[in-house]
Predict the structure.
Amino acid sequence: MDQKLFTYDIIAEDPKTHARAGVLHTPHGDIPTPIFMPVGTKASVKGIPTETVAALGAKIVLANTYHLAMRPGADLVAELGGLHAFMNWHGPILTDSGGFQVFSHGDAVKLTDEGVRFIATDYDGSHVFWTPEDNMAIAQKLGADICMQLDQCPGYPAERSFVERAVELSSMWAERCYRAHTRPDQALFGIVQGGMHLDLRLRSLRHLEECGDFPGYGIGGYSVGEDHDTMFETLAPLASEYMPRSKPRYLMGVGNPTTLVRAVAVGVDMFDCVLPTRTGRMGTAFSSEGRLNFRNARFAHDEGPIDERCTCPVCTGGYSRALIRHLVTQREMLGGILLSEHNIYFLLNLMREAREAIIEGRYQAFHDAWMASAGAADY
C-alpha cells in the first residue's frame, strides 16, 4: 500500500466524550468521519441507483467479497475495469472479507490453520477452499479502496475457548493477509476480534499492531446476538482507551441510530449495516419518533411525511405516510425503495449532525438529547 494515498486527519475531538471528527483520504475521494456506509452487497445498494445513493449524501459504500467472488466472479469484475466501474460508483468503496458470510454456512464450514473450507449452499453447492492469500487475491482483483483481512467471527453466546481460538486464527490470518496484500492503491484494514472478553480484544489488537502497519482497524464480532449494553461493556474501553488514536476505527455491521450515537461517543469513526435497506424492504422506518412500522393501520389516513423533521427527498417530496403504507401492504416495490432511501439518509444525516456537534465541542449534549428523545426507541 502507498501510505501517501491513505491518511487519516483528526480535525476535532469533543472535550467531554471520546468522540472525534476526521477525514480519511483515499484515491477515490475524502471520507468525513464519523460516517455511516451504505451496504451494496452484490455491487448494488438494493433498489437504489448509485446516483441516488450519492445524492442522499453517501461518501463511501460497501460491497461483499464472498458474494462477488461467487457471482459474477472477481476475474470478471477485474476484466470490466474493477469494482468502481462495474457498479458505476466512482467514490470510495470498502469490501469486507466475506468471512462473516462464509462462517454463516454453519455445519458446511471446516476450519484449519491453513484456511477455511465451505460449501456454497446459497449458490451452486460447490466446495470452496479459501486461504488468506486467496482472499487477498480476490480483494485486489475487485479493487476497492479499502479491503478487510480474512477473519473468523464467533457468534454470541460462545464458550471462551471458542472465542480464544477465533482470535488466534484471525491473528494468524491477519499476518498472512498483510504479507499477501501488495496492491498500492488499496488499503488493508485489520480486524479486532475477541467477543465480549476485553482481554481477548486487547490480545487481538496487540497482535495486529505487531504484525504490520495497518492504516485502519475494523472492530468485528459485535451485534452477533448480544444486547447492546453487553456490547458496550467491552466496546467502550476498547475504542476509547486502547485503539490507536491516529487510525480510523470501524465498527462492523452495526446500523441502528442509537448505537451509532453511543458508539461515536466512545470514539468509533465508521459504521456499516444492511439494516436501513433491510428494514425498509420490511416496511419500517427510522424516525425522530422511533422505529415506525408502516404495516400499522394508524398510517392509513395520514397525509404527513414519514418524519416531519427529516429533509430527505422522500419526506420533502410529497410521499405521504398513507401512500407508503399502501405500497408496503400491497407489496409494491416502490414502498421498500422509498423507505430504504429515507433510512439511509436518516443515518447519513445523523452522522453529519454528530460531526458538526463534535467540531463545535457539544457532542455530550447531542448524545444526551438523542438518548432522551423518542427517536432512541429504534430497536
